[in-house]
Amino acid sequence: MFAEIYEANLYKTQDLPSKLFTRKTFFILIEKFFKEYCETNPFLTGFFYKYFWDGSYIDLWALPLVLLDVFRLNTKTLNFYIRKDKNFLKDLKIVVQCLEYYVVEFFKENGEYFRQTKEVIENYRYLLKLLIEKIEFIESN
Q: Under DSSP, is residue 58 helix (H, G, I), strand (E, B) or coil?
């Protein structure tokens, strides 16, 4: 399934993850996602503390870079987090699913600050769905 989705949309995905996951807007989205959802959800809070605790703070800005590494199948990063906890990919998949739903809400609520086209919002959702497919692919191998 993953290979079919990837091949069908290769032209669309070649540089798209780098463009979208490294935008200032996405980092702000991650911060708001944490404040609005993660702080009241024990699973999401636990995920960020488990994988992104940096001794005195949660390094939220590491998540977009991890998403990029997973998207690119960077085995060094994957192995680092899997060594921390064998459930990393399963946990990450749940976080990405939550994040995919939050993207639409974020841009609806903050439309006056972030003038994003419908295409940009759909691109974020598309990449997050594709990321879920990649995680499932990695888990099955």
A: strand
The radius of gyration of the chain's CA atoms, rounded to the nearest angstrom, is 15
Q: pLDDT digit string (tens) for 25-34?
A: 899 899 999 9
Q: Among 133, 139, 117, 94, which residue's Cα sits nearest to residue 20?
A: 117
| Residue 41 DSSP code | -
Amino acid at 125: R
Rounded distance between C-alpha atoms, residue 34 and residue 43, angstroms: 12
Neighbours of 17 (CB within 10 A): 19
User: Which residues, other chains included, contact 23 with Cβ-Cβ below 8 Å and sequence gap of 6+?
Assistant: none
The pTM of the full predicted model, rounded to 2 decimals, is 0.82
User: According to the model, what pLDDT value does residue 8 have?
Assistant: 44
Give CA–CA dist 67/98, Å, rounded: 14
What pLDDT digit, counting tens, does each position of 77-92 carry? 889 999 989 999 999 9
